[in-house]
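= Tokenised fold =
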Amino acid sequence: MGVATGSTDRLDRWRDLIREHFVALDIDAADRDAPFAGSVRSAPVGHLSVATVATSGADYRRTRGLARADDAAYLQVGLVAHGAAVLCQDGREAVLAAGDYALYETGRPFSWHMGGDVGLLVLTWPRPSVTLDAAGSQRLTARTIDGSSGLGAIVGRVLRELVTGPPDLSPAGGVRLAGEVAELVTTVAAEQAAPATPAGPAAEQLRRIHGWVAEHLADPGLDPAAVARAHHVSTRHLHRLFAGQGTTVAAHIRAGRLERCRRELADPRGTAPVFDIARRCGFPDAASLSRAFRQAYGTSPSDYRRQRRPG
């Protein structure tokens, strides 16, 4: 496992270190007359990056210009290990004490305020690997998740142990763990956000649609219009159902296809060429699967299969 570290007492060098480990940010010391110190340590777990950050008081800003200039976008979780911090994004402010955490996205402006010495644990996923649409993610960002009780405490313990002691996994195992942790984080954030959850007939309709989509993932013509026709609803109504779950119909189909491909590639009994797996999962060809798989998991289907079958 590759581990990257850095520390400095110079604010200009600290900006460079933050950009190298995360994304470009504007950083200003909270007290310009006080000594500054910052250190960072990061390591990969599949396509997930886990990091520990220690910093003197400072303000960190991801401006609209910085976000627009960056080709890559990430979903991040910041967990306060010690001290206190405030995260702002999408018109909300999350006030975080030790043990609390919150989600944020690098593709949109955000800011962190560290009033004093703060220890922060940061988990970073490539945005395409997390199946939330823009509207869904905006509902979840900058919400304080209490790390001291309930589901927040359970997930918080997982995050702390993952960052402070990353497990030694195969690349394929890391990919799987990274995906499962993303599911945990978005689940607890969704509970905190108290999204509008379909009830009664709408919930039953959504369950039927999910089952039908799972049965038809191999159909290359599967798209929102086909799903709506099969269930005798308008595409507008269909999109509203999925929006209530923080995703889109297309993202749900894509995630289902990728997960089915991943399971087939991981099966030690499987011998089918990647092209055949792609067609069985609804991708038009191996190249389309390879692009989507690499974007989501950071590796190619062929490499993932080899990693699951050492020797």
Notes: The two ends are 19 Å apart (CA to CA). The longest helix spans residues 171-193. Residues 146 and 152 are 6 Å apart (CA to CA). The chain has twelve helices and eleven strands.
